[in-house]
């Protein structure tokens, strides 16, 4: 059985990606990063999803990115935008304040390190460029560049024993298509978390971009609510 490392945040995209890897018959190793994000509730969702899919090992690593700051998701002095006007698909996307500096580069580097230790040649990531917020580290150009780097920077690759692949099966899918795919795989989206700025009671704010994208996708896919 082929091994893979799946970056699992606990959100819609990463959960669907894990379900996809499971369907393809991989032996699953899930990696969740606690980077001191506002929405750390997603980590509990990741635990439940990993258990549902009987991953071989679920590794939760702590990387305190609050010390770096520069993002509404990690800095208490930057507000998460609420009630924003949706930008039409194809229109220029300004990079929003919810972008976390180099987050996916850091996450993929940690996934690569574990994958090399496991001798797993595949890393799955739920990156998406359709219903996304303009993050530069979700683009296919970035994924391809990281894959090239991975095969230059690792012992097992340099020795010719392994060639790493970064799989992003959802990258060109709309949110509604992602959700339909997950439903076809038996994924229960009530187990996932999307909100960037939970209320003090641990409920979704229903006003951030991530909540809006989630609600729209679920309604279009199946008539479900948040």
Descriptive labels:
226 residues, 5 strands, five-stranded parallel β-sheet, Rossmann fold, globular, alpha/beta
Write down the Rg.
17 Å
The major beta sheet can be summarized as: 5 strands, parallel
Q: Name the CATH class.
A: Alpha Beta
Task: Provide the helix percentage.
Answer: 25-40%
Q: Enumerate the spans where pLDDT stays under 50 for 5 or more consecutive residues.
A: none
> Which CATH architecture is right?
3-Layer(aba) Sandwich
The CATH superfamily bears the name HUPs
Number of strands: 5
Name the shape in a single word.
Answer: globular
What is the N-to-C succession of helices and strands?
EHEHEHEHHEHH
Total count of domains: 1
- CATH topology assignment: Rossmann fold
State the separation between the terminal residues, measured CA to CA.
Answer: 36 Å
Indicate the proportion of strand residues.
Answer: 5-15%
Question: Count of helices?
Answer: 7
